[in-house]
Each structure stands twice: as structure tokens, then as C-alpha cells.
Amino acid sequence: MRDKIYFASDFHLGVSPRSTSRARELRIIAWLDTIKVDAKELLLVGDVFDFWFEYSTVVPKGFIRFLGKLAELADLGVKITFFKGNHDMWMFGYLQEELQATIVSDELILELDGKRFFIHHGDGLGPGDTKYKFLKSFFRSRLCQWLFARLHPNLGIGIAQRWSRHSRASNEEPESFLGEDKEWLVQYAKEKLRSTHFDYFVFGHRHLPYDLPLAPDSRIINLGEWIQHFTYAVWDGKDLTLKEWTL
């Protein structure tokens, strides 16, 4: 019976070096093979690709095994949802056309089995980080997308890959939990709860898996990533559980 809903994020497929990306891709495919027997839905909560831009007739090369596995799941009737992350915000119609996937630009609010979910990649939320919030609004603008599309793909994708490497180089320290008062996604979720109840907040972006209570009837789950932690969450109709995938 297909009755489970799976959540994962931050695969960062295509991240340099290419050899580690291929090994990670194969690991993700092995995980997808195990969930295809009972998955009703698969929600990929951003940064699936380390970079993604859809030109009118060109998409970044690679990931063919991963995309093929998603096509297999789609053909089996699994509903697939992609969230735009900060690394792959330039998704347009390609994945929707090829996989019948739903593309979510910001948050998605779902009611599942009587429980309310607030789902978002997590970038640009919470207090501070005004520089990134400005850049995000610019990168998502039609003007920026039109200008970038004027670049030859070899140049445009090359620039984006260098930007991505620079971004990671400035954040080389391993992720550690900062405490509830300093974790911006925790603070954001607590602020949302002041006006609207959600049973679950589900985020990516923060490369650190955690599952924390926010109130007696509300929790926040960060999905982690698939570079070191290989974590995901599954909803079985009663509980949302954070798990680690091991071969």
C-alpha cells in the first residue's frame, strides 16, 4: 500500500568534485529504490542540485540516473514535489513537464491526516541575514533571470559553479546546533506559532538534522543533508520521524 510521505533535502548533486557527486547520486538512488514500494508522495525540500538553471532549450548536464529514478517513481504514481532552494531556485517548467512534478517557490502548507504542516527550504527566513535576503529577491527577479539567460550556458553555468564553490568555502566549519535562542529557523517557527498553529515545521537549508519540540503539540524538523548525514523524514499517517539512511 502506498501510504507514506517522504521528505528529503540538500542532495547538492553536482557539487565539486564530480566523483563524490556521482557516489552520492548512487546512494540517493538506492534510497529511492527502497521507498518506491510504499511512497505515496516525495517532497524534495530544496537544494537537490548544487546549481540549476533552465535555459529555453538547455538544462545542466548530469544527474541522468537520479532523474531516471524519479521518472520511474512518477510512472508508479508517486507524486513528486520540488522546492526551490538557494542553489536551485531557477527551476521553471522542465521538471514539471518531464516528471509531472509540482514546483514550490516558497512555503507549502499541507494538512495531512488532520495535522498541519509548514514546509519551506528555509533560506531567507527568520531574523537577520539581510544581505542574502536582498540577493535572493534580485536572483528571483524576472530581470535577473532574463539577463542570465542571455549568457551562453558554458559561461553562465561556469560562473554559477564558481559562486557555489565560493559560498561553500566561506562556510567550511562543520555545522553545530547553536541553541534554540540562536537557531533562526527555530525562532521563525516560534514566531509563526504566535498567530497560526502548525503541528510540524519541516525545513532544509541548515545542514544539520534535528527534531525539536516547539510546544506540547508542535515540532520542528530540519532534514539535514546528503553529504555527511544522509537523513530524511517520513510521515506514516500518525507520526513524522527523522531517519538516517544507511546502505
Structural class: alpha/beta
Rg, Å, rounded: 18 Å
Percent of residues in beta strands = 15-25%
Principal-axis shape: globular
Gap between N and C termini, in Å? 24 Å
Strand order of the largest sheet: 4-3-2-1-10-11
Helix fraction by DSSP (H/I, runs of at least 4): 25-40%
Number of strands: 11
Listing every helix as H and every strand as E from the N terminus to the C terminus, the arrangement reads EHEHEHEEEHHHHEEEEE
CATH secondary-structure class: Alpha Beta
Write out the CATH superfamily name: Metallo-dependent phosphatases
List segments where confidence is low: pLDDT < 50 over at least 5 consecutive residues: none
Number of folding domains?
A: 1
At CATH level 2, the architecture is 4-Layer Sandwich
Largest sheet report: 6 strands, mixed
Counting DSSP H or I runs of 4 or more residues, the number of helices is: 7
The average pLDDT is 86
CATH topology: Purple Acid Phosphatase, chain A, domain 2
